[in-house]
Design goal:
Length: 63
């Protein structure tokens, strides 16, 4: 069997599908390097730590 270089998602798809932004409840998408999640509505960023997304609202960082 030939192993293709697939992009491995850090989060299981089942989990990813139910993740929403804690601020505006919009869908999340992976950041460019897939080390975090970005809200596609408000742009809030959530880090992924050891395969677990940290969905605490980034309250300390306000624009
Ligand atoms: Zn949002």
């Amino acid at each position: 069997m030939v192993k293709t270089k697939e992009k491995v998602d850090p989060i299981p798809k089942d989990l990813f599908d139910i993740l929403t932004c804690t601020l505006c409840k919009a869908d999340l998408e992976y950041s460019k390097d897939k080390k975090g999640l970005v809200c596609c509505n408000c742009g809030a960023k959530y880090p992924i730590q050891e395969g677990i997304p940290n969905l605490l609202p980034p309250k300390s960082k306000k624009f």
